[in-house]
Design goal:
The protein is built from 13 helices and 38 strands. A hairpin with a 6-residue loop joins β37 and β38. The two termini are about 20 Å apart. About 20% of the residues lie in helices and about 30% in strands. The longest helix has 15 residues. The chain is of the alpha+beta class. The chain folds into 5 domains: about 90 residues, Death Domain, Fas; about 80 residues, Immunoglobulins (Immunoglobulin-like); about 80 residues, Immunoglobulins (Immunoglobulin-like); about 240 residues, Rossmann fold (3-Layer(aba) Sandwich), CATH 3.40.50.1460; about 130 residues, Sandwich (Immunoglobulin-like). It comes from Psilopogon haemacephalus (coppersmith barbet). GO terms for molecular function: cysteine-type endopeptidase activity. One of its GO terms (biological process) is proteolysis. InterPro entries: Caspase-like_dom_sf, Caspase-related_regulators, DEATH-like_dom_sf, Ig-like_dom, Ig-like_dom_sf, Ig-like_fold, Ig_sub, Ig_sub2. This is MALT1 protein.
């Protein structure tokens, strides 16, 4: 529509090129302008389209383009572009309605994705809340007792805006002294109303601790002793009969549901003789000697959370395709989850999708969080900066088409993370097409940065071919050591030593470690409950990207019932399987197939509705098919991050009656919303 306005008008594409060219990096050469003008000779050619493509490749922002149109005085084009901006504002985290007890604080959260410079404003009913211009609104519930209130957030960019949904806050009186203790402020949607209490018992007594919470969905519980989970203790009440001194220690309870997580306070349980009375520091001094003194152990490093973003690019549009990233990302995902990392794993991302994925990753970080970024794919290194190449990079790509790792690190530091780990499984050869020195601001001196490069500077990284399954050299050795309780730099040193034993890459590829880590930080470090409840936005953001649609049962007019099930291979790849559960006796043959799958997804129709998981084109079928039912038809949907609308498709039931040769057909449309990573609107 913009092309129609600018292709033939007097204030058209040439004027736009002139105004945009006032910024040196957007100035087009004579040859480029001639290339644009020649587009009129093509059947559907557009000079404006060609010009916009040139500006996009130079990272021209929508805001700058709008400013150019305003300087041209092109009101109609400005109005068109402003309307497009309005469609770009998406509320990604909605505020949640809550029922809370008096004396606590409520935190409402609203996050939005869209153009730069989004402005937030909270309302209570129709009244603006003074000073409430941040994504998070904290409310003192004492003022709301007996007066239910409705809250909503407006997100705007210039004259365009979008509203969140309404959130209803209902405050109830406390039913017990513990419930209003104020120790545990409210998280959105999850509130502890009864805290466990410390106690002192004798051996043989019964230990009873209780933690109660309000939440929607209903809360689940997991008790911890000395910050280790207590096996089988997954109820609000923890009871242990006939206790011994082995049960003494510090107890806390993790309360969580699908979207939120909150911890109770930590309480001490003393049994029998106090541990302090039998410690070496309290023993009487030997005759004629000095009293023994106890040296306090050094503090154990810990994370407030652990988050990992794993990106594997394989199917490049203009470059050699790779095999290893899929297997490597899957292997690391499995191992990192065993280390309690929140993992987002994505395959085959374009530049805009990679940038949005990194932005969402940054939202998951916070003070004391361990952040890990793993990238497998094409890459290069210029002037000490590493660049990750997206799958849509042109044949002669530059830094403008790629993501700079050092800029990602700078953004991570702004989140005050406890540990920043980069595992870069890519080549580090010089890119002769790129002579631009990136302007990266100076990094903070945080002494918590670790870079593990799969290969040395100006060298290539290799993958091992093993039939359909290929591993990169780096991950082949990394996965042997990843679960070891070692300082991360020591662990990577061991990986480097192992890699050095491989004869075929000796002299070609060697792991390089760069680090300024000053503490003994390890991937196995425990996650300690924070001293107070924090915003649930981080947990909600991660949970949204990992919610599969619920299994469904479809009933057809012929009397057949079809089960529709789902499995996740990666955060952006989903398996759908159909299974006929029951048919009337007069039906001889019956099967259910998927049709009308959205074209924007990467779906090979030859690999849909297959009778075995191995036929859908996934080398990893053995890993996800374990949870699938038997006698199914399988389809594999890739590129879920490209979904702009909710995922809708058709289930086609084909059946044949006894004594008949022809098949009958019935269809049902199914809408499963936005599954997995599609909920985050990365497009």
């Amino acid at each position: 529509r913009l092309c129609e306005l600018l292709d033939n008008a007097g204030r058209g594409w040439r004027k736009l090129a002139e105004v945009a060219g006032l910024e040196k990096r957007f100035k087009c050469s004579t040859e480029e302008l001639e290339m644009c003008s020649l587009k009129v000779l093509e059947p559907r050619g557009s000079p404006t389209q060609c010009l916009l493509q040139l500006l996009a490749e130079r990272n021209c922002s929508l805001k700058y383009l709008l400013g150019c149109l305003e300087r041209m005085g092109h009101t109609q084009a400005c109005q068109l572009l402003t309307t497009a901006v309005q469609d770009m504002i998406h509320i990604t985290v909605q505020p949640e309605s809550q029922v809370v007890t008096e004396g606590t604080r409520v935190s409402l959260t609203c996050w939005a994705a869209g153009p730069p410079g989004l402005v937030y404003q909270w309302f209570c009913g129709k009244r603006e809340v003074p000073g409430a211009t941040a994504p998070e609104l904290v409310i003192e519930t004492a003022t709301l007792l007996g007066q239910p209130e409705w809250y909503i957030c407006r997100v705007s960019c210039g004259a365009t805006f979008a509203f969140s949904r309404w959130a209803h806050i209902q405050v109830e009186r406390s039913g017990s002294p513990e419930s209003g203790s104020g120790y545990c402020p409210s998280m959105a949607g999850l509130q502890i109303v009864r805290q466990p209490q410390p106690c002192r018992l004798a051996e043989g007594d019964t230990l009873a601790l209780e933690c109660r919470a309000l939440g929607n969905p209903p809360p689940q519980y997991q008790w911890f002793r000395n910050r280790c989970p207590v096996e089988g203790a997954q109820a609000p009440r923890l009871q242990v009969k006939l206790v011994t001194t082995a049960e003494r220690g510090s107890y806390s309870c993790r309360v969580f549901n699908l979207f939120h997580e909150v911890w109770s306070r930590e309480v001490d349980v003393e049994i029998g003789e106090s541990p302090a009375q039998s410690s070496p520091a309290q023993l009487p001094a030997p005759s004629g000697g000095l009293a023994l003194s106890s040296v306090p152990p050094p503090p154990v490093p810990a994370a407030t959370d652990k988050v990992a973003l794993l990106i594997g690019n394989m199917h490049y549009l203009h470059h050699k395709q790779l095999k290893a990233p899929m297997v490597d990302v899957h292997a690391l995902s499995t191992l990192l989850r065993q280390l309690d990392f929140k993992v987002v794993s994505l395959l085959d991302l374009r530049k805009a999708e990679m940038q949005m994925a990194v932005n969402e990753f940054l939202l998951l970080l916070g003070k004391g969080v361990y952040g890990l970024l793993y990238y497998a794919g094409h890459g290069y290194e210029n002037f000490g900066n590493s660049f990750m190449v997206p799958i849509d990079a042109p044949s002669s790509y530059t830094s403008a088409h790629c993501l700079c790792v050092q800029q990602v690190l700078q953004s991570m530091q702004q989140r005050h993370t406890g540990l920043n780990i980069f595992l870069l499984d890519m080549c580090r050869k010089r890119n002769l097409n790129d002579d631009v020195i990136p302007q990266v601001e100076a990094l903070q001196v945080t002494a918590n940065i670790v870079f593990g490069y799969a290969t040395c500077a100006d060298a290539e990284a290799y993958e091992l071919s093993q039939g359909e399954l290929s591993n990169g050299i780096f991950v082949t050795f990394l996965k042997r050591w990843l679960l070891e309780d070692e300082k991360i730099t020591v662990l990577l040193d061991k990986v480097a030593e192992d890699m050095g034993t491989l004869e075929i890459t000796r002299g070609r590829q060697a792991l390089e470690l760069r680090s300024n880590l000053s503490e003994r930080r390890a991937l196995t470090d425990p996650i300690l409950p924070p001293g107070r409840d924090e915003s649930s936005a981080r947990n909600l953001q991660w949970a949204k990207a990992h919610v599969l649609p619920q299994s469904q049962h479809l009933r057809f007019d012929c009397g057949a019932t079809v089960q529709l099930g789902f499995a996740a291979e990666f955060s952006n790849i989903m398996i759908i399987y159909t299974r006929v559960l029951g048919t009337p006796r007069d039906i001889a043959k019956c099967e259910a197939k998927l049709t009308d799958i959205p074209q924007e997804l990467d779906v090979d129709l030859k690999c849909t509705n297959k009778e075995s998981p191995e036929e859908v084109g996934s080398p990893l079928a053995a890993t996800w098919s374990l949870g699938c039912a038997s006698c199914c038809l399988y389809s594999r949907l890739c590129g879920l991050q490209k979904l702009r609308q909710e995922l809708a498709f058709t289930v086609c039931l084909q059946y044949r009656y006894h004594g008949m040769d022809d098949f009958m057909e019935e269809r049902q449309k199914v809408n499963v919303g936005k599954p997995l990573i599609a909920k985050l609107n990365l497009q």
